[in-house]
Each structure stands twice: as structure tokens, then as C-alpha cells.
Amino acid sequence: MIKIILKEIYLYRNKNKSKILSKFFKTGSGQYGEGDVFLGLTVPISRKIALKYKNISKAKILSLLKNKIHEVRLIGILILVFRYKEAKLKGKKEIVDFYLKNTKCINNWDLVDLSAHYILGDFLLGKKNKKILFKLAHSRNLWEQRIAIISTLAFIKKGKIKWTTKIAKIFINHKHDLIHKATGWMLREVGKKNIKELRKFLDANISQMPRTMLRYAIEKFPENIRKKYLRK
Fold first, then answer.
1. Which pLDDT tens digit goes with each residue over 110-130?
2. Per its UniProt record, what InterPro entries does this chain match (predicted)?
3. pLDDT digits (tens, 9 = 90+) for 57-111
């Protein structure tokens, strides 16, 4: 089955797009995506393939996740997303456990952004114990850190914002641009639900916030207010 899936994936290979994606996802020496290999598939095509093979075994999903090709891993992750949405509570927990056990395979920002809030975030919505978010936020793994903040998008959509600001506070002094962007993005989403709470967070932390995080957070503000924050 894996050979069949891989054969279908390779049918959509686009060399020109693969070069563009390799540069976009920083695969050069010393960059965050160093060594990642792209075939040039679009996300819609990857979704289509994932939906087609969503019922394969977990062993086969793991085989996809461990593949060196970026889009193959993405398809494995999208299969988990599809499976999670259809699963009952016990099945959802099994998928979450599987997801967390294999975070080393979720090793680029799009892989995180297309899965974290759909799987981990959604699962934690009804749970009192959300300590896993703190564990991930304090991980030495950049992608686990990003999973922590992106997972909170599921909460934001339900009007629950405190976990986003808690994780954002942890990342105030983070050194990586990818965390600045992700955190700023989530703060911007907070603002769509509760602008007062976003401004309260900004006013309390603006002196420490990385500029990229701030710019992302205030992107939807009126120009005069945005400029005011940028001058602080």
C-alpha cells in the first residue's frame, strides 16, 4: 500500500515548484528546514491524497511520517486530521497520543499549522488538564513549541483566550522568528474575539515583545493605533 501511495504522490511532482518550496521553507545549511526535501505538491492535492487513503493502518501512517519527503509527511499528518475528525472519544485520544509520540516527524511550520489545533487543540478543549501545552512550550524542540501556541487556536475559536496569552507570555523572550510569527498570529486571533484583552496583554508586555510578534499581533488594528504601538 505504501508503494501505491508513494507512486501516486510522485505523479504530482513539480520540479519548478519544488525549488520554490525548498527556498520558501528554508532548507539550506543552517536554516530551520535544513535537509527537508520537496516534490512540489500543492496542499489541495496533498489533502486529496490523504482523504483517499485515510483508512490505512497506523503502521502505514507512521511510515509516511518518517519519510524524508516533506509532502509525504504532510499527507500522513493530514490523514491523522481526517481520522481525528471522524473518531469517537477513545479514538481521538489514541490519535492525540500517536501525534504527540511522533512530534519529531512534525518538523516544519506548515506541518504544525495544518494539524496542531485540529488534533491536540480540539482534544484539550474539554479537558481541565492542559499541562501538556506548558510541557511543549518549554521543550527544546522548536516545532513542539510551535505546536503549543498553535494548538490554542482551537480555544480562541470558542472564545477561550487565557491559554493563548499564557503561552504567549512564555514566548515573550523567545529568540526564533518562527515562534514570534506564530505567537503574534495567535494574539491577532485573540483580538478578533476580545480586543480589550489583546490590548491589555500588549500594554503589559510591549517593552519585551519582539517586533515581529508585535507587528503580527496588531496587523488588523486601525493604522493610527498600530503606529502608536510601533512607536512604544
1. 999 999 999 999 999 989 899
2. ARM-type_fold, DNA_alkylation
3. 999 999 999 999 999 999 999 999 999 999 998 999 999 999 999 999 999 999 9
Give phi and psi for 109, each to the nearest 5. Answer: -65, -35
Residue 44 lies in a domain: yes
pLDDT value at position 114? 98
Neighbours of 198 (CB within 10 A): 23
Q: 61 is written with which cell numbers?
A: 501512517
CB-based contact 182:146 (threshold 8 Å): yes
Please work out, in degrees rounded to the nearest 5, the angle formed at the alpha carbon of residue 198 by the alpha carbons of 191 and 207: 135
Cell of 98: 500517536
Q: How remote is the C-alpha of 30 from its chain's centroid?
A: 21
In single-letter form, the type of residue at position 226 comes to R
CATH number, position 22: 1.25.10.90
